[in-house]
Design a protein that fits this description.
alpha+beta, Ribosomal Protein S5, domain 2, Alpha-Beta Plaits, six-stranded mixed β-sheet, binds alpha-D-galactopyranose
């Protein structure tokens, strides 16, 4: 990334001759463990080299001004520190506004405004957590400009609160956690109930992770995500008639099989089936990765996709076409959708020497069936949200 270009843009947009500071928060992929976070289960995400840059400087008055190079048509959006209410017309700027509001609510002293320019190199709406990335980069901007002491886990939880209470998406903690605590070349096995986590070196030998974007926009705020969550909550309360549990993530697959009859509604039973088996797969995935058994890892990815398609029903024709095309390619160990689903991205584990053929073949099949191209990204696994300090 050309940081000096971002700084020049900052000077032009805000008409200021200061030396602003630069921050970065990654996006994330999830290797396995989908729709398990809000069910108290495990997830296995990793922060990626694509993400959101923020160039920022404090102001003397109480104005907050936001500009995104990804939405130049929206121009500079402005509000006062004393009025951080959600405003539909402020579109993406509600994410930083929400984050600043929740930091202030926690008692952090933010008494003057700021100018912040954003630039994201993850496509927005791709399911790689561009919104959590904006929240977390705003968190580190505030932490550093205002010398706040913010516990990192708390910052992560505040990011989730922005989604849940400000934007209105009942999402779990995975995205903010992966982005806030990411570690170069490592994935994170996170228990979303206790927030206990473990870093696992991502040693993929001759294989690489390829991200494939369907180029179908994924609208998280759409009701389907919240509906899935409600279905799991209903299934849980049915199971609680006989079981002393507080989340679906506490169940082994055997316990689930013995008690699944308690779930009244067939659709809810399918949703819970996914949550329980996906959680079990996620724990297994860490085990096989530790043994460098990439074949089994790929197999678990494939099973995860099947379950998201048939039981959780969040894939859709675009993701299924990509993943099924990926499965047919030589040198592919596994492929699945990643993130919330309903469009967005898939990931595949592909032999290095086969990546070019993979892209060409998958794109040909995709374009034939869907009518437009997919986009391919080769990410590296990155550290979490941080300031970028340039060496002179
Ligand atoms: C979105 C949410 C996460 C998680 C995934 C599905 O990314 O923000 O909390 O639920 O979907 O695993």
């Amino acid at each position: 990334m050309d940081i000096s270009r971002l700084k020049k843009k900052f000077a032009v947009i805000f008409n200021r001759q200061v030396d602003p500071r630069v921050f970065f928060a990654p996006g994330r992929i999830n290797l396995i463990g989908e729709h398990t976070d809000y069910n108290g289960g495990n997830v296995f995400p990793a922060a990626i080299s694509f993400g959101t840059y923020a160039v920022a400087a404090k102001r003397k008055d109480d104005a907050l001004r936001f500009y995104s190079m990804n939405f130049p048509e929206l121009g500079v959006m402005e509000c006062k520190l004393s009025d951080l209410d959600y405003q539909e017309s402020q579109a993406w700027a509600n994410y930083p506004k929400g984050m600043i509001r929740f930091l202030k609510n926690e008692g952090h002293s933010i008494t003057t405004g700021a100018d912040i320019l954003y630039f994201g190199d993850i496509p927005n709406g791709a399911g790689l957590s561009s919104s959590a990335s904006i929240e977390m980069v705003t968190g580190v901007v505030m932490e550093n400009l205002y010398l706040l002491e913010i516990d990192r886990i708390r910052m992560i939880q505040l990011g989730q609160l922005v989604e849940n209470k400000y934007i209105g998406v009942q999402s779990g903690i995975m995205d903010q956690f992966a982005i806030g605590k990411g570690k170069k070349d490592h994935a994170i096995l996170l228990d979303c109930k206790t927030l206990a986590f473990e870093y696992a070196p991502l040693q993929l030998e001759d294989y690489v992770i390829v991200i494939i974007h369907t180029n179908k926009r994924r609208e998280l705020a759409g009701s389907a995500y919240n509906e899935r969550r409600l279905a799991c909550e209903r299934a849980l309360s049915d199971l609680q008639r006989s079981l002393n549990i507080t989340t679906l993530g506490e169940l082994t697959t055997d316990q689930f099989e013995q008690h699944r009859y308690l779930i009244d509604n067939e659709v809810d039973r399918k949703r819970a089936n996914h949550a329980v088996y996906e959680n079990a797969r996620t724990i297994k995935a860490l085990e096989v990765l530790k043994e460098c058994d990439l074949q089994s890892f790929g197999q678990l990815m494939n099973e995860s996709h099947q379950s998201l398609k048939n039981d959780y029903q969040v894939t859709g024709v675009e993701l299924d076409t990509i993943v099924e095309a990926a499965w047919q390619q030589p040198g592919v160990l596994g492929a699945r959708m990643t993130g919330a689903g309903f469009g967005g991205c898939a990931i595949a584990l592909v032999l290095k020497g086969k990546v070019d053929d993979f892209k060409e073949n998958v794109n040909r099949i995709y374009n034939d069936q869907i009518g437009y191209d997919a986009t391919f990204y080769l990410p590296t696994i990155s550290d979490g949200a941080r300031e970028i300090v340039l060496k002179e």
